[in-house]
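From the methods appendix. Each design record in this collection lists the tokenized structure first, followed by the designed amino acid sequence. Records were kept in a plain field format so they could be parsed without special tools. The example shown here is representative of the layout used throughout.

RECORD:
FOLD TOKENS (451 positions):
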């Protein structure tokens, strides 16, 4: 390995000074890197990858570094930041597609699209880069209507670790002329190469929205309410979120103010949003009428209405509120709806037996089966030893697997989940994935995660 030779050959594209923002993860501590490379074009990415292969240097691709699985936090690798990949922003209003460089951030893309009445409809509380979203196949709060990143991507340009560029897909909605290999790179956490461009499917901005925060009569009423609203409104339901009392209390504490409910905090709350893409439809009136019927039939005990921005701000404040209370131990899981409450009950009981100080503060995307089964280890407690934290994670993930769920719903794969991947993924699937990685990235340039 010749780091010095690589840096000399990379010239102005590489810098030895690495700012802290490239090293500190969104939640799980900091890493280290001897240098950072900042290419501005796909050709420069290809050159850097070829040089890295020649000199035996491992590069780690990094977008906005907002992920939660340490996939972009360096552990001695040279960083390849995609933040300067911003040369392409090609909007096709007729086909409602956008060809865009991977360094653009989500807010920038949607700010530019808004003047045309369009959006890239993956809604997140963080502000990731487009490349990072693709690498982890993010979902977000409105996935039940619009789908995840994979469902909204029509093509990619990638550079393999060998430096070979590939254009995958033509940006067409219908195209069976070749294998859709772009899907190998979406959700691969950068293990197969660097995504430099994407062709995204766009959606119209809603003309009208209406949001309500609901207090269901009980947990048993949650799924009947979900079925009520989806049956009544179909695709108008753009979000259906769940928040436990602990999660909602944390959000209220960090934002200030009182409970949005007159009757105090319920054990579990629901946030529902209806949105319409055309004029002549009043989501507010539709939602109010259905809520009145649900209240009369005893499925609801309370509702907070007509404060859309305030209610969404409360939902997005949960994570910050939990961090104020102690160490957050996050579980980004997905489960069949029919077993969610059974899992929740068993996981809570297991924690009470083995880790009684852990406070369950679960919330998430009930409309698509996703759940952030987050725990808070209070500041008043001695810090968890690494081996205890590992045992805690293994215990919860074992229950997730027992109920037919996924241990990574939308945060992707990374070093934080390597042990869980090795334990819980079928050997046959791991073997096939490993062969693909060996074919596309034989030296594992670009990712410390091992398939």
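DESIGN:
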């Amino acid at each position: 390995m010749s780091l010095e030779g690589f840096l000399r050959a990379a010239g102005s594209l590489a810098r030895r000074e690495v700012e802290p923002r490239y090293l500190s993860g969104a939640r799980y501590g900091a890493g280290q890197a001897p240098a950072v490379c900042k290419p501005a074009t796909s050709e420069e990415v290809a050159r850097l990858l070829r040089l890295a292969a020649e000199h035996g240097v491992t590069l780690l691709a990094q977008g906005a570094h907002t992920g939660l699985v340490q996939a972009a936090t360096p552990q001695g690798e040279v960083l390849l930041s995609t933040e300067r990949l911003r040369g392409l922003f090609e909007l096709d209003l007729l086909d409602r597609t956008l060809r865009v460089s991977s360094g653009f951030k989500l807010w920038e893309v949607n700010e530019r699209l808004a003047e045309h009445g369009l959006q890239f409809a993956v809604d997140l509380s963080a502000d990731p880069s487009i490349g990072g979203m693709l690498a982890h196949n993010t979902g977000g709060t409105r996935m039940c209507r619009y789908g995840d990143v994979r469902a909204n991507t029509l093509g990619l340009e990638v550079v393999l670790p060998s430096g070979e560029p590939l254009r995958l897909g033509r940006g067409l909605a219908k195209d069976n002329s070749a294998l859709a290999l772009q899907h190998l790179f979406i959700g691969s956490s950068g293990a197969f190469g660097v995504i430099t461009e994407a062709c995204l499917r766009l959606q119209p901005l809603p003309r009208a929205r209406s949001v309500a925060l609901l207090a269901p009569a009980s947990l048993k009423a949650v799924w009947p309410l979900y079925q009520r609203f989806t049956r009544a409104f179909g695709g108008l339901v753009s979000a259906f979120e769940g928040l436990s009392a602990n999660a909602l209390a944390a959000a209220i504490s960090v934002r200030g103010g009182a409970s949005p409910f007159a009757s105090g905090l319920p054990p579990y709350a629901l946030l529902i949003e209806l949105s319409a893409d055309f004029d002549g439809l009043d989501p507010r009136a539709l939602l109010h009428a259905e809520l009145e019927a649900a209240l009369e039939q005893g499925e609801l005990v309370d509702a907070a209405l007509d404060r859309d921005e305030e209610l969404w701000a409360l939902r997005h404040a949960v994570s910050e509120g939990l961090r104020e209370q102690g160490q957050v131990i996050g579980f980004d899981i997905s489960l069949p709806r029919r077993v969610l409450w059974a899992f929740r009950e068993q996981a809570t009981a297991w924690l009470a037996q083995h880790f009684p100080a852990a406070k369950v503060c679960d919330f998430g995307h009930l409309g698509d089966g996703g759940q952030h089964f987050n725990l808070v280890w209070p500041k008043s407690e001695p810090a968890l030893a690494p081996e205890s934290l590992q045992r805690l994670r293994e215990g919860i993930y074992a229950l997730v697997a027992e109920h037919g769920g996924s241990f990574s719903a939308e945060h992707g794969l990374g070093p934080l989940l390597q042990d869980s991947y090795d334990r819980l993924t079928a050997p046959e699937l791991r073997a096939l994935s490993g062969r693909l990685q060996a074919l596309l990235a034989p030296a594992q340039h670009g990712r410390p995660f091992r398939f």
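APPENDIX NOTE: The chain has four domains: 3-84, 89-204, 208-316, 325-412.
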